[in-house]
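Work Package 4 report. The design task specified in the project plan requires that, given a folded chain encoded as structure tokens, an amino acid be chosen for each position. We show below one input record used in the internal validation round.
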């Protein structure tokens, strides 16, 4: 008596996990990925040692602890720095594979949803690792120069969550633009143009059509100035802005992904 064995196709989560691990491997084990990682670590050291920590002394003199001043300086710079970095590092989500023709091959085994969202998740994880590296350097340099503070690790974890939340819509923006173009440089250029034009447009709408002013919530970075005035966990009170923007951009990107030729 013969028994037949049917092969069960891998689940969507399994497919996505394979794609995510491949992206992480490419980001942190390939030669180019290691060069990016080394360059980022070096410039983060310079940024923290000669920018964040020295300028914290004047802030600390105005009130508060030295550690608090250091992290406030870090927030002020990282809130703008990491989103801009996303425009470069997260620009190659699907475009380059479409140009090489490998995206068509991948689509034979994975759905477009799996490809689109796994690449987005991969870039989120990569950016979080970069943020974590900068925070490790921040804590290490602060401890070396100022001595160990028991609040440094909880503050670093909170910063990872806060800055990580901020970069979500920017990675989603690059996921959207990467669907439209094939080269990372083009994606970065068009993302910068879209970000600038949307800010100008909403500024005009706020001035001349104030009834539509609430739509400003869709402008990436519109909450940055308010974020820099908040401290610690209170920064999470504006997390919904980033998640709304991210959701809108991902929906638009997935819509275009479903209709774009591979």
């Amino acid at each position: 008596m013969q028994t037949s064995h049917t092969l069960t196709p891998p689940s969507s989560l399994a497919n996505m996990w394979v794609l995510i691990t491949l992206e992480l491997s490419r980001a942190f084990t390939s030669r180019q990925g290691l060069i990016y990682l080394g360059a980022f670590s070096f410039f983060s050291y310079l940024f923290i040692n000669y920018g964040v920590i020295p300028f914290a002394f004047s802030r600390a003199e105005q009130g508060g602890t030295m550690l608090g001043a250091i992290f406030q300086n870090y927030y002020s710079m990282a809130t703008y720095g990491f989103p801009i970095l996303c425009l470069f590092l997260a620009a190659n989500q699907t475009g380059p594979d479409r140009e090489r023709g490998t995206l068509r091959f991948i689509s034979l085994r994975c759905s477009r949803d799996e490809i689109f969202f796994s690449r987005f998740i991969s870039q989120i994880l990569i950016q979080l690792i970069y943020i974590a590296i900068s925070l490790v350097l921040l804590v290490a340099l602060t401890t070396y120069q100022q001595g160990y503070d028991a609040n440094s690790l909880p503050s670093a974890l909170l910063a990872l969550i806060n800055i990580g939340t901020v970069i979500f819509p920017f990675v989603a923006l690059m996921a959207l633009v990467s669907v439209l173009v094939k080269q990372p440089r083009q994606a970065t250029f068009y993302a910068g143009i879209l970000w600038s034009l949307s800010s100008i447009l909403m500024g005009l709408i706020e001035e001349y059509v104030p009834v539509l002013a609430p739509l400003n919530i869709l402008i990436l970075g519109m909450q940055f100035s308010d974020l820099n005035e908040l401290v610690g966990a209170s920064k999470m009170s504006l997390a919904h802005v980033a998640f709304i923007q991210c959701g809108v951009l991902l929906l638009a990107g997935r819509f275009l992904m479903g209709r774009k030729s591979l």
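The longest helix spans residues 112-146. Validation will be extended to a larger panel in the next phase.
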